[in-house]
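<given_protein>
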Amino acid sequence: MNFQQCRYVLTIAETGSFSQAAKQLFVTQPNLSTSIKELEEELGVQLFTRSNTGAKLTEDGFDFIKYARRILGEVDLLEERYRSHFKKSFTVASHHYDFLSLPLTRIAAQFEDDYQECQLIETTTKKILESVAKFESDLGIIYLDDDNRHILERSLAQQELTFTSLGDFPTRIFLRRNHPLANRSAISPKDLKGYPQARFRQEKTGLNFDEDPLEVKDGQNVIYTNDRGTMMNILCASDAYASGLGIVNSFIKDQIVLIPLEDSPSHTLGIVTSQKKKKKTEITETFIQFVKESLAEHC
């Protein structure tokens, strides 16, 4: 099976005719029919039912084009990526961290002559690791602690990824400015009893891939989101609290307070890169340096 055969199937399905598809594809009808027959024999299924009125997809044919459209869509994107007018792209996959906005905008400005696209994808731990392993992202940013370190280090090794520390940070509690606990200099786990917790949703993998440092207590009300902006809106509109590393550099600081959690264990924030990429690119090295500068006041 090849990409050309996939395109043949899609064109026949769209036109409903081998003869019309051959005209659109600029091939002879016998050659088109032979190519489809070879594909059907290779797959062991019949893709079309032929008749005097045209060609219709079989049930297997409908299944085939679902996958073919996805594959050809990615091929089209790849071809577009390497056309002469297209510049390179730089992608970071990360947990939901406020402090990455400034490094990303600095990178976009400094490398604008060579890089057309710079993007930050805030997503789940599992997807961050997969994205870096599949080279969809240039690097990832996650944290390790005593609860997740063993599992994440095993997952990093299995996917041939490297974790490089950016520093250790304690847990902080995120609250709206007029929250009943907002005036505390420090907060204990007991103080949080009775308040709902706002958390970022992770996949149910059976592994501890949580982004939030605090666990959910038995019977506790939880509000889940996958978006950092929604998280801040939830905190500002309720008595819910969130937990994190408390590394905030933007206007969000005007809307919430960050209070240390008593006796909090430290969490190691770090960069995830692929071991298969032996050398970091200039833009990756520069971005990491900008991140370190952004973190400097919090270390």
